[in-house]
TrEMBL record:
Protein name per its UniProtKB record: Iron-containing alcohol dehydrogenase
CDD domains with a match to the protein in the record: BDH
Keyword Ion transport carried by entry: no
Domain Alcohol dehydrogenase iron-type/glycerol dehydrogenase GldA: 9-178
Classification via PROSITE patterns: ADH_IRON_2 (PS00060)
PANTHER family to which the protein is assigned, alphabetical: ALCOHOL DEHYDROGENASE YQHD (PTHR43633)
Organism per entry: Faecalicatena faecalis
Organism taxonomic ancestry: Bacteria, Bacillati, Bacillota, Clostridia, Lachnospirales
Keywords carried by this UniProt record: Oxidoreductase
Amino acid sequence: MNQFQYYTPTKVIFGKGTEEEAGELVKEYGCKKVLVHYGSGSVKKSGLLDRIFRSLETAGIAYISLGGVVPNPRLSLVYEGIELCKKEEVDFILAVGGGSVIDSAKAIGYGVTNEGDVWDFYEKKRTAQACLPIGVILTIAAAGSEMSDSSVITKEEGWIKRGYSSNYCRPKFAVMNPELTMTLPEYQTMSGCVDIMMHTMERYLNHTENMELTDGISEHLIRTVMKNAKILLADPENYEARAEVMWAGSLSHNGLTGCGTDGGDWATHQLEHELGGMFDVAHGAGLAAVWGSWARYVVEARPERFAQFAVHVMGVEESEDVMQTAQKGIEAMEVFFQSVKMPITMKELGISPSDEQIAELAEKCSFFGKRTIGCVKMLDREDMRRIYMDAR
Ligand SMILES: NC(=O)c1ccc[n+]([C@@H]2O[C@H](COP(=O)([O-])OP(=O)(O)OC[C@H]3O[C@@H](n4cnc5c(N)ncnc54)[C@H](O)[C@@H]3O)[C@@H](O)[C@H]2O)c1
């Protein structure tokens, strides 16, 4: 097991009706004015936004609001939010939504508290020194941004999607009522399940030996999400299944399943970010579409680990042929993705990039040849192009 730091400062308020506590929770931070940040329609339609406003009013909290966050949240709205917060002297952001809203709130929080262009952080030109405090009312179990240190933003100019991580942006609190996720379309629920699984799979597929406890937590988390994704496919209003998936979403990306690892691989996420930036696809579905191609490309670099995954997670029978076991595990995961109506190719994802677009995806993903990605096997621009080609 490697050395590690485990820092998870987010207070979790979990269960039915917990969103009613929003006002009192925000009050604990002694703020003067709150920005309520949200997306496009579902929180208005469901009446959730009005309930949050009422809760803030009852607690005597002044607030303004900014909606309009779209999936793959845009930099232009982040700039608008920064200006608004500065003008209105906002000192707390309450994000009501999923990963896109929370990430947009985090970027606004950076922009208000740091000088210069906030995009510099996402381009890795500078590091942030602060962020406004952020609270979350979660409406979709997926990204895990409600407890994570990261945010992912898309710059419209060039359609570049980039992530930035720092502990400053970890939310102060996350309110999680599984009932709020029952209005999600099936595709978003399943896409969320894939993202949750992938956050742990990215950490699990690594080069570290001897991680009995972290491996056990990870394997059980992935199996739990697989089991409950299938329940939700048949019974989307199953509260217990919604609750298991929601809690898994937070634990999968708050650092727990990475304790003692070498940091994990993350190549699938980097490959998907370019798909999200260029084609605006749902993040989890995009991950499912490229994961198998990535896994087949790198499996030779770490067959024992893939074989452990196959046996402990996918229920593949152990055999003396480690490579064969490893490959059976990859196939079994693709079969699972299809069983929950997730794509395993870009075609199934609904996009058909040309050869030139594939080359552009690899260019962008490699930061125009300046970076490699992955740890199971380090990948350069040509490797990325080949994986994209295979996934097409
Ligand atoms: N910051 C992180 O740690 C992190 C980790 C992984 C992914 N991400 C990023 O997060 C974004 C994806 O976030 P997400 O998967 O949470 O989804 P999302 O926030 O993009 O929401 C997906 C869709 O579901 C809708 N929606 C949300 N809640 C709903 C509800 N209760 N009922 C009906 N519709 C609802 C949204 O309006 C949206 O159209 C991507 O940009 C991804 O790259 C961030």
